[in-house]
């Protein structure tokens, strides 16, 4: 009996150690953070995710967090070498998986939204051949001038008879959306959602999305790219019942009267020359249905600051989390950095939004840490996830649609080389987080 007890203790200890040790999901994969959800939990507790290889292949993968078993499926061969092209995933009501991705804007190799759907429940090995389509109309092209397709963000709303919404930066170089009532077989014409007051086809608002899967899609967005805008603020709105709404529930506009301007939405952060331009990283909702937001400010190009904002029903509680260092791309000697705003990145736990995982610079290496708050971000308890690394760990993500019964998994990118989004040699790691 005593021997069995000690064996039991040893197995528990060994299991804990194994659970807390990062494992390699792939040694060849990269992703951006604007084509999401790039990782989801399925109803059977598996994690489905995907990436772009250093030769430009698009890969989908399924991870069993309990056994560590990984299955892969190549969705597209040599799309292009660009981390913006990573696939985003949606579990359909019948438990098949739909994925969408794009070229980065498009060019000689192709243009449009690419889609694959599994034929069997949650079985990524049954993904269909790729279908390419272009969400456009002659009327929109005439009005908004520019045709380009980057990013895809698919969601399903059960309150709308399981209608699928997919958002991306498409016509006009602006956020668009399309809908499907037949699980993605056919799609509606696109609608442009947000635009500058005076149409500027070089201006591109950046958007992060989160859906409750029922009736709402939440959006945080900026005026444009922080590199291009004199000031870049952060805004919030949500879609529900054929309209877009501010945080306080006041209507911005009906779908039929889109687009609206950034300033028409709720302001989370108003940028100033002193506090710096901003960019966005994540949004979820808390148990009250209130938005919780993670974003970055740049008082200088080499000083990146993480902020956390919660709407409490009356106001935004917007607090500093930590200074994270500078950009993570490895700037070639003698060259200027092309992506000064590439912070290590943050992700909010969708099941417990008081928990944030973030990448920051420690001893010239980017490490992952966990931050916990009990007072809407005023104070933080920070604990390490990775330390003493020899390679940078960046762009962490907690898979979406997490359930209480799911194994708590964190995924992130690890860089053997990352010079640019078209010049990288990176992998994807994963780790079971034990409380």
UniProtKB/TrEMBL annotation:
Residues 1-19 form the signal peptide. Pfam families: BNR_4. Keywords: Signal. InterPro entries: Sialidase_sf (IPR036278). This is BNR-4 repeat-containing protein. It comes from Dyadobacter pollutisoli.
């Amino acid at each position: 009996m005593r021997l069995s007890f000690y064996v039991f203790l040893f197995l528990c200890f060994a299991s804990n150690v194994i659970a807390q040790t990062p494992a390699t999901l792939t040694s060849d994969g990269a992703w951006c953070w604007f084509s999401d959800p790039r990782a989801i939990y399925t109803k059977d507790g598996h994690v489905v995710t995907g990436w772009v290889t250093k030769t430009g292949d698009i890969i989908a993968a399924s991870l069993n967090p309990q056994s560590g078993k990984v299955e892969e499926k190549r969705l597209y061969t040599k799309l292009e070498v660009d981390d913006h092209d990573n696939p985003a995933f949606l579990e359909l009501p019948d438990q098949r998986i739909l994925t969408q991705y794009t070229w980065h804007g498009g060019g000689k190799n192709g243009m449009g939204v690419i889609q694959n759907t599994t034929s069997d429940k949650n079985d990524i090995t049954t993904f269909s051949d790729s279908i390419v389509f272009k969400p456009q109309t002659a009327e929109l092209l005439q009005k908004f001038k520019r045709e380009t397709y980057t990013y895809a963000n698919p969601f399903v709303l059960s309150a709308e008879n399981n209608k699928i919404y997919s958002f991306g930066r498409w016509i006009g170089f602006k956020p668009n959306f399309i809908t499907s009532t037949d699980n993605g077989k056919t799609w509606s014409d696109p609608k442009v959602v947000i635009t500058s007051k005076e149409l500027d086809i070089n201006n591109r608002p950046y958007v992060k999305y989160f859906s409750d899967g029922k009736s709402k899609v939440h959006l945080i967005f900026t005026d444009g790219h922080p590199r291009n805008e004199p000031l870049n603020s952060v805004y919030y709105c949500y879609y529900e019942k054929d309209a877009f709404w501010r945080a306080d529930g006041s209507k911005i506009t009906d779908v039929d009267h889109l687009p609206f301007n950034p300033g028409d939405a709720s302001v989370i952060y108003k940028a100033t020359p002193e506090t710096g331009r901003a960019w966005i990283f994540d949004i979820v909702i808390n148990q009250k249905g209130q938005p919780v937001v993670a974003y970055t400010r740049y008082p200088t190009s080499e000083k990146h600051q993480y902020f956390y904002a919660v709407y409490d029903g009356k106001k935004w509680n917007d607090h500093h989390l930590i200074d994270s260092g500078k950009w993570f791309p490895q700037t070639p000697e003698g060259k200027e950095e092309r992506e000064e705003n590439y912070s290590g990145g943050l992700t909010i736990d969708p099941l417990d939004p008081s928990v944030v995982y973030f990448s920051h610079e420690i001893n010239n290496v980017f490490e992952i840490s966990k931050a916990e708050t009990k007072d809407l971000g005023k104070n933080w308890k920070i604990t390490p996830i990775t330390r003493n690394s020899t390679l940078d760990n960046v762009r962490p993500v907690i898979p979406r649609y997490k359930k209480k019964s799911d194994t708590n998994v964190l995924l992130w990118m690890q860089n053997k080389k990352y010079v640019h989004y078209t010049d990288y040699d990176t992998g994807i790691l994963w780790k079971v987080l034990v409380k």
